[in-house]
Amino acid sequence: MLDKLALTIVIIGAVNWGLVGLFEIDAVAFLFGGQTAIGSRIVYTLVAIAGLWCVSMLFSEPSRRAAR
User: Do the beta carbons of residue 46 and residue 54 sit within 8 Å?
Assistant: First the structure.
């Protein structure tokens, strides 16, 4: 369950970075009142933590991933 949640958060972060790269639109900052707003900082931190969690998925055994 935690793997799926982390992956979902990473995907949201990736979509946000895609919007920043293609259209200079930061959806997180737009929704939470700017890049330095506490809500934005929390979301950015959650994306970073989820990304680090997904690194462990990258190096885990395929049978271990299936069991999760």
Answer: no
Q: Which helix (H) or strand (E) holds 49?
A: helix 38-58
Select from 6, 13, 17 the least CA-distant residue to 58. 6
pTM of the model: 0.85
The domain segmentation of the chain, as residue ranges, is 2-67
Nearest to 7 by CA among 64, 68, 61: 68
Could you read off the pLDDT tens digit of each residue along the chain, which spans 68 residues?
A: 999 999 999 999 999 999 999 999 999 999 999 999 999 999 999 999 999 999 999 888 876 566 65
Q: Tell me the C-alpha to C-alpha distance, in Å, between residue 20 and each of 5, 13, 16, 29.
A: 23, 10, 6, 11
Question: How far apart, in Å, are the Cα atoms of 38 and each of 43, 45, 52, 59?
Answer: 9, 10, 21, 33
